Amino acid sequence: MKMNRLIACGLLVSPVSAISLKADVNSSMANWNVITAGDAYLNDPVGGRIFVGGNLNYGNQVATVESSVAATNITLAVVGNINSWANIQHGSVVAGGTSQYLALNGGTLTTGSPVPSSISPVTSLINNSLYWSTLTPNSTVAYGSGSATFNTTAGSSVAVFDVTGAQTFNANLWNGIGLNLAAGVNTVIVNVNATTINGGYTPFLSSFQNAFGSGNVVFNFYNATSIDIGAEVYGYIVAPNATVNLHSGVQGGIMANSINNIGGVGITPPVGSTGPSWNGSLPDVAVPGPVPEPASLALLPVGAAALWFFRRRTVRD
Question: What is residue 313's predicted lDDT score, i.e. its pLDDT?
Fold first, then answer.
């Protein structure tokens, strides 16, 4: 389903440029490895940066591989309260509420002031998750005995898959899931249609266990409300409406409504001198149509008058 629509008007109005409201979702995913709209319990280390839209109720080691990040850079942002100890190995912390004891290794802690909305990636991910779910699939999955292979198609830089939970994360794919990467593909979107993910066994094969798998593949659980995954995931999980439990962690990143348990978040390659954690080129949500500038608005009466004049001449003739 194509989201972009062109509406032509017959008024004599000068061309104007669109006012871009498009969020840079790729930058958001590259900057933040963990994003929640609500609360988070992070009981294992996180290699990169964290944005929590609610309270951080349990922390661990943060920004473990961000050695090249300046101490003044924010690596932990919490809109609410920090209710747990955490070890911030690199960078600084900002919290809108209060904070428990934090181990700061050269960074600073700022509390009690609202977290700037300009750094929040939440709205961008929510909007884009819904948008990606409408994209027409251009690649297919081959299912075998206890296995699934995602076969991308050459000719498009972004490969799009549509699958159900019953076919993938709710299935017992004991032989694993693999990725067959065609020439020219630099981003993979897997739209997963399932309200609940729980109980399946989906180990990721070596074709996912690399920098492309963790940095260029997004699993979009656009309508899920509950996710429980036992195997380690390679890719960026986007689940704006879900409470998520990841028992073995994720190599890449995660965006969720809330996180109850996470078995660590790794980064391949590390953030910093070797590049960001997300390297894909995802399409952004459609930009609203052009809005006339004041000068153009002034021409609207002229255009209307011209149309009225020509209509009168047509009727008389």
Answer: 43
What pTM does this model have? 0.81
Q: Which amino acid is at 44?
A: D
- Kindly state the tokens that stand for 228: 């429980």
Please tell me what DSSP assigns to residue 309.
H
- The answer to the question of residue 63 being in a domain is yes
Domain membership of residue 16 (yes or no) is no
CA proximity to 109, closest of 67, 64, 62, 65 = 62
Percentage of the chain modeled with pLDDT above 90: 62
Please, are residues 23 and 284 in contact by the beta-carbon 8 Å criterion? yes
| Structural domain total, the chain | 1
pLDDT of residue 267: 64
* Buried b or exposed e, range 2-26, using 16+ CB within 10 angstroms: eeeeeeeeeeeeeeeeeeeeebebb
For 222, the domain range is 25-266
Residue 201 in any domain: the answer is yes
Specify if 313 maps to a domain: no
